[in-house]
Amino acid sequence: MKKIWILLIGCLLCTSLTGQNINDFRKQREQEQKQFRQQEDNFKKQREEEYKQFKAAYEAEFERYKKNYLAYLNGEKSVLELMASDDNLKITPLPKDQRPKAVVSSVKDEKKALDNEIKFITRSKPEDLLGDLSKSKDPLQQVKDGVEQLKKWNEDMEKDGSKLQVLTPATEPIKEEPKKETPKAEPKKETVKKEESKKETPKAEPKKDTVKKEEPKKETPKAEPKKDTVKKEEPKKETPKAEPKKETVKKEEPKKETPKAEPKKETTSISIPEGKPTAYTRLSSKFGPRIHPITKKQSTHKGVDLAAPKMTPIYATADGTVTFSGTQGGYGNFIKINHQNGYKTAYAHMEKLVAKKNEKVKKGDLIGYVGSTGQSTGNHLHYEVYFEDKLIDPEKTM
Questions:
Q1: Which has the closest alpha carbon to 76: 43, 117, 41?
Q2: Does residue 12 lie within any of the structural domains?
Q3: Residue 227 in this model has a pLDDT that exceeds 80
Q4: Of the candidates 323, 297, 272, which has an alpha carbon nearest to the alpha carbon of residue 111?
Q5: Residue 209 and residue 282 in one domain
Q6: Minimal CB count within 10 Å: which of 51, 334, 350, 390?
Q7: Which of 270, 289, 314 is the last residue of a domain?
Q8: Based on the domain organization, do 338 and 292 belong to the same domain?
């Protein structure tokens, strides 16, 4: 019996001890759960606060981005309008064989593309771009990535607007080339014929006039005195005066013909932009189509960037008239030369301007010096070539 009682008492003691242990374990678990929930709540609150902060920063960067990018687009548009203008100057169309064949795009097409980008940016909201700025599915990480990306782009935009776009292979604009040739072929034949007729008529008339004026001088004053006087005196007067009259006519003819034919051929070749506008170390950015990484809209880098040391001389690539010399937004110190035959050239980011507005320049004349004015990250010359309202690859003229 004693053994049985001892076993029962031992079992009762064991059960009491295990129950106490279970209660202690439960209390400990509850405390741990409370701490975990508190930490989770704190984490959520912290994330919410971070999200609010980063969202506000993102929206601020987005507005800054819109302002910078719209300023860049409007600047590009104003330069296009400036370069398309003939500046109220008399333009002599080039013959068909001297007109450029390879044209990438036109001013009209480029303005359309810029207008589409301007509409897209003005209508866009901050949340519309998050998918392009970040690949993360976490909203907080998306906003963080967006702030970092927009900050970088804004810094690039404020230094050099062209850095916002990425070079891509040309695809679509090449299909638009055949539209440009047909409407402008007919009027060029008429202008060439008019110029030829003007050259022939003034040279034929003066030769006949000079001969006729000298003939009446021989007959009228010298025929009458020969009859009145003695016949022996006649041969003395005729021989010395007839010879010098023939020599004067022959000497005058070659002087008029030779100097007028040569300069006309020289001006047509010199007036077409050819050669390098400056000595450069490398071609830092080529001419061609670009696609915006966010808007996916296509535009064109309308010239070439020629990297060169500061104050490297810049020369006119053809004869013409300077129709703009001053600052032009992101282009900095800017010069436009109208060559008065459909060709126009542009020179941007210059450190110092030498040529002034309305000044006549010849090929090889100094017009300024290389710099980094406007939206530019380093010393270089941005050089553009236009024919009428079409964009030409400047590298092909160099």
A1: 117
A2: no
A3: no
A4: 297
A5: no
A6: 51
A7: 270
A8: yes
Number of H helices, E strands in the chain: 7, 14
Name which of 343, 350, 274 is nearest 87 in CA terms.
343
Sheet with 288-291, edge to edge strand ranges: 166-167, 288-291, 298-301
Contact 336, 384 (CB under 8 A): no
Q: Pick the more confident residue, 382 or 178.
A: 382
Closest CA to 336 of 273, 294, 396, 242: 273
Query: What single-letter DSSP state applies at residue 371?
Result: B
Cβ proximity of 314 and 350 under 8 Å = yes
Asked whether residue 31 is domain-assigned, the answer is no
Task: State the burial class of residue 239 (Cβ atoms within 10 Å of its Cβ: 0-12, 13-18, 19+).
Answer: exposed
Would you give the end-to-end CA distance of the chain in angstroms?
120
Q: Answer whether 308's CB lies under 8 Å from 350's CB.
A: no
Same-domain pairing of 69 and 150: yes
With a threshold of 0.85, does the pTM exceed it?
Answer: no
Tokens of 328: 């032009």
**What angle in degrees, to the nearest 10, is found between the helix axes of 186-228 and 234-270?**
170
Nearest to 114 by CA among 85, 81, 140: 81
179 in a structural domain: no
| Domain end (from 224, 254, 270) | 270
Q: How many domains does the chain divide into?
A: 2
Same domain for 230 and 330, yes or no, is no
Tell me the per-residue pLDDT of 175-187, one tens digit each, with 9 for 90 and over.
333 444 444 444 4
The answer as to whether 20 is a domain residue is no
Residue 116's Cβ-count burial label (10 Å; 0-12, 13-18, 19+) is middle
- For residues 260 and 16, the model is more confident at 16
Pairing of strands 298-301, 313-315: unpaired
The domain of 266 spans 184-270
